[in-house]
């Protein structure tokens, strides 16, 4: 099939027409622009569905290119995924490129790497939190452009997780959709799966805004639940949504019952509205309470050839502190080079230290 040419809105019009026609012929089949995907357990039933779709579109003057079509395959590559009877997994071509990823030495290469890894984000738990400091390198307001050992470590960990990722299931519109919420200190992860199954549909993660990070733990859970339900309601396809959270009687939570509540009243009104939705059920799971705040603490080894502080070109605090607190150890990233990512030159590895120094500040232009 091909959309008509010469019209500015022909792609959108074509997609709308294909979706409407397919909904009348076979509502369970999926379409993406000019491609149609369907799956069955039995071969004869599958061929009958294919024939019904072809005939139905032919009556409306739509033609298929059978040279490019693949019919009755046990596995299929579709939109970058390998579709199997067990579910969908990342395509072998994608995994081959993933195995060859190397630390970037320019901003452009870093942007390309982030875009590439973003394709497989639904296979990686807590992806948004783990890749956060890689995205900080491309922010225009981020003063330091150094690629460090920790960035390489994050890249390798995500690379290994993506290569070892198991297949995911597709949505079964005959069952209810289950969403399990795992909230952390700076973001949250939730997983989706069909009711009665153990294989996940996807991992999803999101970072809290600066204001949301100051919320009380219960308010962070409410933020996570509201966002997850809004995003996944289309996936439920009219079925009920079952939310599993670490808070008992979540739908009965009010601002007066939450100690140290920080969210403004309009936000609480939004939460109250979403909690009373008729298509959502809430289930309490005490096992999730132990993961209410996920802390990612990495111990950096102190190199044997550590140089005195005054021999470094620049020293910056990397533990998020703006001004050091008295009596607190602060992690320092000590750079012996001014090489930058956007300079395209070699980046020397930094030295990581813990120090009790107070009031030691530097800015890197």
Give an account of the 3D structure:
With 365 residues, the protein is of the alpha+beta class. The chain has 4 domains: 10-72; 90-163, 2-Layer Sandwich (Alpha-Beta Plaits); 177-291, Ubiquitin-like (UB roll); 309-355, no CATH class. Helix content is 29%, strand content 17%. It has 9 helices and 13 strands. A 5-stranded mixed beta sheet has the order 8-7-6-9-10. Strands 3-4-5 form a 3-stranded antiparallel beta sheet. A hairpin with a 3-residue loop joins strand 6 and strand 7. The longest helix is centred in the middle third of the chain and has 20 residues, at 217-236. The protein starts with 9 loop residues before the first helix and ends in a 10-residue tail after the last strand. Its EC number is 3.1.26.4. Residues 1-83 form the Reverse transcriptase domain. It holds the Pfam family RT_RNaseH_2.
Task: Sum up the structure in keywords.
RT_dom, 365 residues, 13 strands, single chain, Ubiquitin-like (UB roll), five-stranded mixed β-sheet, alpha+beta, Viral_Replic_Matur_Polypro, three-stranded antiparallel β-sheet, 4 domains, globular, disordered C terminus, ribonuclease H, Alpha-Beta Plaits, DNA/RNA_pol_sf, 9 helices
């Amino acid at each position: 099939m091909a959309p008509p040419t010469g019209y500015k809105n022909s792609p959108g019009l074509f997609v709308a027409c294909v979706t409407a026609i397919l909904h009348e012929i076979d509502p369970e089949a999926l379409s993406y622009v000019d491609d149609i995907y369907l799956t069955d357990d039995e071969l004869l039933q599958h061929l009958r569905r294919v024939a019904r779709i072809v005939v139905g579109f032919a009556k409306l003057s739509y033609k298929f290119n059978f040279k490019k079509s693949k019919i009755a395959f046990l596995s299929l590559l579709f939109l970058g995924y390998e579709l199997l009877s067990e579910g969908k997994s990342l395509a072998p071509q994608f995994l081959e490129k993933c195995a060859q990823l190397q630390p970037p030495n320019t901003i452009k290469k870093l942007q390309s790497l982030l875009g590439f890894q973003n394709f497989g984000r639904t296979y990686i738990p807590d992806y948004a939190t783990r890749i956060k400091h890689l995205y900080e390198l491309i922010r225009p307001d981020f003063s330091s452009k150094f690629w460090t050992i920790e960035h390489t470590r994050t890249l390798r960990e995500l690379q290994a997780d993506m290569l070892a990722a198991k297949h995911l299931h597709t949505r079964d519109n005959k069952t209810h959709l289950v969403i399990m919420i795992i909230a952390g200190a700076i973001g949250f992860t939730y997983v989706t799966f069909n009711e009665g199954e153990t294989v996940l549909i996807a991992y999803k993660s999101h970072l809290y805004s600066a204001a949301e990070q100051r919320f009380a733990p219960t308010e962070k859970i409410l933020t996570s639940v509201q966002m997850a339900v809004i995003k996944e309601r289309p996936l439920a396809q009219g079925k009920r949504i079952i939310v599993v959270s670490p808070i008992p009687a979540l739908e009965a939570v009010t601002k007066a019952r939450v100690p140290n509540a920080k969210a403004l009243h309009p936000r609480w009104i939004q939460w109250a509205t979403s909690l009373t939705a008729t298509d959502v059920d809430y289930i309490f799971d005490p096992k999730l309470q132990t993961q209410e705040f996920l802390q990612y603490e990495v111990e950096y080894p102190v190199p044997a050839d550590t140089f005195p502080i005054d021999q470094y070109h620049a020293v910056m605090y990397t533990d998020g502190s703006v001004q050091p607190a008295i009596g607190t150890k602060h992690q320092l990233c000590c750079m012996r080079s001014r090489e930058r990512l956007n300079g395209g030159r070699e980046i020397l590895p930094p030295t990581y230290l813990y120090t009790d120094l107070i009031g030691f500040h530097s800015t890197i232009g």
